[in-house]
Amino acid sequence: MESQRTFSGIQPSGSLHLGNYLGAIRQWIPLQDEYEAFFSVVDLHAITVPQDPAELRRKTLETAKVYLAAGIDPSKATLFVQSHVPEHTELLWILNTIARMTDLERMTQYKDKSESKENLVGLFDYPVLMAADILLYDTAVVPVGEDQVQHVELARTLARRFNDRFGETFTIPEPRVMKEGARIMGLDDPMKKMSKSAASEYNFIALSDDPEAAKKKIMKAVTDSGSEITYQDDRPALKNLITIYSLLDEKSPQEIVAMYQGKGYADFKRDLAEIIASFLTRFQARLAHISDDDAMKVLRDGAEKARGVASAKMREVRERIGLLP
Predict the structure, then answer these.
(1) Is 239 one of the catalytic residues?
(2) How far, in whole angstroms, is CA 239 from its chain's centroid?
(3) Could you say which of 65, 76, 179, 193 is catalytic?
(4) pTM (2 decimals)?
(5) Would residue 185 count as lying in a domain?
(6) Dist CA 171 CA 136 (whole Å)
(7) Is residue 190 part of a domain?
(8) Catalytic annotation present for 220
(9) Which one of the listed residues 59, 65, 111, 113 is annotated catalytic?
(10) Does the annotation count 76 as an active-site position?
(11) 227, 134: one domain
(12) 22-73 confidence digits (pLDDT tens)
């Protein structure tokens, strides 16, 4: 019996950070053993806002190398660049013909992003491209952060709408959200998600940060009032730091709280800073051993495999909607 498929991807823009790793990439690693996994560098999503062409190419390759350094195994998972599989944009257009303006107008991420940027069609429509990414591979499970669940719901809606109109064609995907780590918050503002586009470098810890610089960021991270180490919703800054500690050191939040009974923020943050510095040192050593040529070979092989699956699905879609073969 064929295993079910999973799909996910990250845009190659800005600096990949600890939130990307803990909230997404780290979550993908065990999925390689549970599912037939497709992981993409989604460069077409990145161009929904202006990008420098040379920088985009550099970041696309760098993101693929981060995937590999984090533990994505090309012998287990298919790793490819989104634009290398043109069926993604073909299915986008077809899904656009059944998507409704009201489907997209309710997307909260568009509302947030459009406030500070031009009202570009691509920015408005990118959830349909995300749906195409997912449905093209008959994806059963989509690992996402909490803020992306709405987009998986759109993919589910479009899949059902297409199946009802043209016959059973697409698998209805299910989102999988990690309880902890799905939403790592900013070090300077625990009410906003850690973001590679943040104005302040003290919002995030980049995976490329010098370990000593990362330690300084942790020591400057905002904390809540009081001094006791507790894991509570009403102390969001401390809760966020404990979550990071928990995921990197593989201890439960409750174990960490117990470790710091009778101790203050300074002790806690010093230890967390050391844990993060140690993680970055190991991660960056693995990254340094992956050459551009090695990464490109993985991407070429991945695109060939992904296109095999995607082209078969698109032949089925074209036949269903009545396009001439």
Answers:
(1) no
(2) 22
(3) 193
(4) 0.91
(5) no
(6) 9
(7) no
(8) no
(9) 113
(10) no
(11) no
(12) 988 988 999 999 999 999 999 999 998 889 999 999 999 999 999 999 999 9
